Amino acid sequence: MKKLVILTVLFMSAGVICAEEKSGTIWQELRPQTSEAGPQIYYFRYKEPGLMEDKGIFYGVTAAYTYRGWVPAYPENINKLKWMLRAEAMVSWGQVDYDGALQNGTPYKAKNNNDISTDLRMMLGLDFPGTQSNNTPYIGIAYRYLEDDGSHDPSGYNRQANYVYAPMGITLQGQLNSDWILGANAEFDLFITGQQKSRLSDVGLEDVKNRQKSGYGARGSVRFEKTGKKVNFIIEPFIRYWNINDSEIEETSGISGLEPKNNTTEYGVNLLWKF
């Protein structure tokens, strides 16, 4: 993961340098308000090391709204740093295959668990505008929900993960020429709190809720944006990662329940229309 972050930062730096050498101007594309929407597809893997693994393909839609009310009609009026506000929403779904064990330790596999994931994010950033580039560090607040429903299987049950976290990152944009903009993003996600709900009543036991207190996330992406007269088209490969520590122990009917240390990796691509 560290190598990925280092490579992403180097690539972003190279993109800005390249943009400064081109004749295009980023001001042709910066607007007071923009919206983005489109489909996404990604590979999903959830793992509790030494215990179990879920993996499969997810399909979804993502949307975003960015407000830059400071953008002037004439670039020569730029003389100060300005604020940026951005809201994002994502919902995706897929089927995953389970590879693990039963409570008695017997190896067990199950296919086609129905999963759904939602991510809602709000970020406040500070634009560092230049003639051919615009760089924006940001911080925000976000909520992630993941439901893994294995209740169709005789030994499976429904699990729901809820995360509240603070995204902190930087987005770089550079105008390559009059037709293309190169962008990149690197982000660290500070885990604030979480709760794992295990509906064990699906297998005849009592439901358990475990509080999660520590962990972290990270994500990175590269954005290739083709400009148009009214609508831009964006191809955005991405990777997202979570590493969450052991939860608190919950006592239920004399049974101690623990959500083990786990990690999640997602990598795929967004196809977006920007207007």
Would you spell out the secondary-structure blueprint of this structure?
Blueprint: H1 2-20, E1 33-48, E2 52-67, E3 82-101, E4 107-129, E5 133-149, E6 158-175, E7 180-199, E8 208-212, E9 215-226, E10 232-244, E11 250-252, E12 255-257, E13 262-274
Antiparallel strand pairs: 1-2, 1-13, 2-3, 3-4, 4-5, 5-6, 6-7, 7-8, 7-9, 9-10, 10-13, 11-12
What does this protein structure show overall?
The structure is a single chain. With 275 residues, the chain is mainly beta. The chain has one domain: Lipocalin (Beta Barrel), CATH 2.40.128.100. 7% of the residues lie in helices and 65% in strands. It contains 1 helix and 13 strands; from the N terminus they run H-E-E-E-E-E-E-E-E-E-E-E-E-E. It has a 10-stranded antiparallel barrel with strand order 1-2-3-4-5-6-7-9-10-13. A two-stranded antiparallel ribbon has the order 11-12. The protein is elongated, with a radius of gyration of 21 Å. It starts with a helix and ends with a strand. The N terminus is likely disordered.
Brief sketch in words of this structure:
The protein is mainly β and 275 residues long. The chain has a single domain, classed as Lipocalin. It contains one helix and 13 strands.
Q: According to CATH, what is the topology?
A: Lipocalin
Computed Rg: 21 Å
CATH class division: Mainly Beta
Task: Give the helix/strand class.
Answer: mainly beta
Which structural traits does this protein have?
single chain, 275 residues, mainly beta, Lipocalin, ten-stranded antiparallel β-barrel, two-stranded antiparallel sheet, 1 helix, 13 strands, elongated, disordered N terminus
